């Protein structure tokens, strides 16, 4: 993998939130960035901010749900910078609603942007990366890519799809020793304009449940993955807890979600919905990085354990060892054995 200051990086969804912060962080480290989304004026704002600080940015207005536009984005980035080292599939939309309240065109659109948009991105980037013999495709999924949640059924379907697609693609590319890496980023709730941008049929603006992180925390993981090959990175210990709970007992995860209506009620804010969304048309005017739910700017869990998976294995080993020692101690105390000169021997 080339160092960031030698990389050409494409970021979709760069007009707002996580993509906007990620583009700025890449540029700060010397990467040449291509910014893609639909809101032309917001993209130009990000590009000017980057250039003002001495960075290099190129804007390509793109709707990721349209294959010809994504193909053109790759052509434009490669023509402008001569190569594509990292491609970040980040653009996303959602509709907060009970499944039966969704219109078919809303269902189609979420899948087209959140799932097909990422598949198109990989398809467009790969020919350039193959020719170079190296590259990294970073797909931004969500904690809802490992565990479903109510009111976002199609978004969850799309993010589970992104996870499955990324796994399958990784195996094909690794089998061939292609030199092209794939990383799945799984953020928890993040303080971006996502909740204002999402269409809501709840009679209220959507809001993030649980612990919230600032866009910097996700950008940090994406930028890290562009230089350090990682299979997947959960952003925030709460996102990883979703995964652990789901692996341990999906039924228990269901019960915890349903307890006191937790996962339904916590996704509704006390504010009325703004009546605007980005499902079919971009937000107009200025883009923004942050939303209305301030959170933590960094996750120590992600920086220690997700960036260094060997530490995660060691920590899990230590937890398992402590648990086993605890069980042994319990068995001893329950007296179904007797002590010998060499220690404890269990009987019976
Ligand atoms: N915020 C969270 O809590 C959270 C948690 C987990 C995962 N994520 C994921 O993080 C990613 C970024 O979301 P965010 O939180 O930063 O939300 P955001 O602020 O609403 O940003 C979404 C971005 O996607 C772009 N976009 C939407 N539809 C597009 C289309 N058809 N073609 C091209 N670009 C499009 C938007 O730009 P235009 O409108 O200008 O096109 C915008 O730049 C998404 O994939 C989201 O699912 C977010």
From TrEMBL:
Signal peptide: none annotated. GO terms for cellular component: membrane. The keyword Oxidoreductase applies. CDD domains: SDR_c3. Keywords: Oxidoreductase. It holds the Pfam family adh_short. Its EC number is 1.-.-.-. Residues 266-288 are annotated as: Disordered. Gene3D superfamilies: NAD(P)-binding Rossmann-like Domain. GO terms for molecular function: oxidoreductase activity. Belongs to the short-chain dehydrogenases/reductases (SDR) family. This is Putative oxidoreductase.
């Amino acid at each position: 993998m080339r160092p960031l200051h030698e990389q050409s990086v494409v970021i979709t969804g760069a007009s707002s939130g996580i993509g906007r912060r990620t583009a700025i962080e890449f540029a700060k480290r010397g990467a040449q960035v291509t910014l893609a989304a639909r809101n032309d004026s917001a993209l130009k704002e990000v590009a000017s901010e980057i250039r003002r600080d001495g960075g290099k940015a190129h804007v390509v207005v793109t709707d990721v749900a349209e294959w010809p536009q994504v193909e053109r984005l790759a052509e434009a980035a490669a023509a402008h910078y001569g190569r594509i080292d990292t491609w970040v599939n980040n653009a996303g939309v959602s509709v907060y609603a009970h499944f039966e309240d969704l219109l078919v065109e809303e269902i189609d659109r979420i899948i087209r942007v959140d799932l097909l948009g990422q598949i198109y991105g990989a398809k467009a980037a790969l020919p350039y990366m193959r020719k170079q013999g190296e590259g990294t495709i970073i797909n931004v999924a969500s904690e809802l890519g490992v565990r479903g949640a109510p009111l976002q059924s199609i978004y969850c379907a799309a993010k589970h799809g992104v996870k499955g697609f990324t796994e399958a693609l990784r195996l094909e590319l690794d089998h061939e020793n292609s030199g092209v890496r794939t990383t799945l980023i799984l953020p928890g709730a993040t303080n971006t304009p996502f909740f204002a941008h999402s269409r809501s049929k709840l009679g209220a603006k959507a809001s993030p449940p649980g612990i919230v992180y600032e866009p910097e925390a996700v950008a940090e993981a994406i930028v890290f993955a562009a230089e350090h090959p990682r299979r997947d990175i959960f952003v925030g210990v709460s996102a990883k807890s979703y995964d652990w709970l789901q692996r341990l007992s999906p039924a228990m995860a269901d019960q915890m979600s349903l307890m006191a209506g937790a996962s339904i009620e916590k996704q509704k804010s006390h504010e009325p919905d703004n009546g605007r969304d980005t499902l079919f048309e971009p937000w107009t005017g200025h883009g923004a990085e942050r939303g209305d739910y301030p959170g933590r700017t960094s996750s120590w869990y992600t920086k220690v354990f997700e960036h260094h998976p060997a530490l995660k294995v060691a920590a899990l080993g230590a937890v398992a060892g402590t648990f086993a020692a605890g069980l042994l101690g319990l068995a001893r105390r329950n007296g179904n054995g007797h002590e010998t000169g060499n220690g404890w021997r269990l009987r019976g």
